[in-house]
Write a structure and sequence with these properties.
Elements lengths: L8 H4 L14 E9 L5 E9 L8 E7 L10 H10 L3 E5 L18 H13 L5 E11 L2 H11 L3 E7 L4 H7 L7 H19 L20 H8 L1
Parallel strand pairs: 3-4, 3-5, 5-6
Antiparallel strand pairs: 1-2, 2-4
Helix pairs in contact: 3-4
Length: about 230
């Protein structure tokens, strides 16, 4: 029997009390948490078939949620459906998001691939998981971090994507390549100078990544994100 760190269900699985999340009569959901190599705690869900045989090793998949979301949004749906197809699955809140540890809503691409590998570590502790058949599914922005993890972690045998979105490109070039190289350089220069402000004890300014207010110039994507 694998050892897991379990957090209280009431505090962890908001989907248990909501009526707009997919639930399957064939799927068991277990709240879990595990550590990364950066000594941060990741909170997630383990999905497995009800009454799964402990003597049979199943393939398994780590499922990453869309950028700016949490595991309950999209990732849990994919995870439950994959269990119905014969997989064991894990969803996780990326570092600094949802119930996972750290400065809330911080975006840190360095930490994200490690969280994926840590999820593989955790999956491998269950005797009903085949360590040689573990893959990963990225949804939207998490695809990039899943791929980054797979490039350096050969235990991830396969990668699948849904609504693949290149977060690196959109941050470099802007949405629909709306940001020029010079504008990017200005942003980098401004961010660099803000570090001196932190050194000089000035209050730090954080970028939220989305609009605070809509204007007549806001496009449909901005409006969708604002509404969400």
């Amino acid at each position: 029997m694998a050892l897991t760190t379990v957090v209280p269900t009431a505090a962890q699985n908001l989907s248990y009390e909501a009526d707009n999340f997919y639930r399957s009569e064939y799927v068991a959901i277990q709240p879990i948490s595990f550590e990364t190599k950066y000594n941060t705690t990741i909170v997630g869900n383990l999905f497995s078939r009800n009454n799964i045989s402990r003597s049979v090793s199943s393939p398994a998949v780590v499922v990453g949620h869309p950028m700016g979301a949490v595991k309950e949004q999209a990732a849990n749906l994919y995870a439950a459906n994959l269990v119905e197809q014969g997989f064991a699955t894990v969803t996780l809140d990326l570092p600094f998001w949802g119930r996972s540890e750290g400065l809330h809503n911080l975006v840190s691409p360095d930490f994200y691939p490690e969280a994926c590998s840590a999820a593989v570590d955790h999956l491998g502790t269950y005797n009903f998981v085949d360590r040689e058949r573990i893959g990963a599914l990225g949804i939207c922005g998490s695809v990039r971090f899943i791929i980054s993890a797979a490039r350096i972690d050969s235990r991830i045998k396969a990668v699948a994507t849904s609504a693949l979105y290149d977060m690196g490109a959109v941050n470099r070039n802007g949405l629909r390549r709306s940001q020029s190289v010079n504008e990017r350089r200005e942003i980098i220069a401004e961010a660099s100078q803000r570090r001196w402000a932190g050194v000089d004890d000035a209050s730090l300014e954080y970028a939220i990544g989305t609009l605070k207010n809509l204007t007549s110039d806001s496009d449909v994507v901005d409006r969708d994100f604002f509404d969400y």
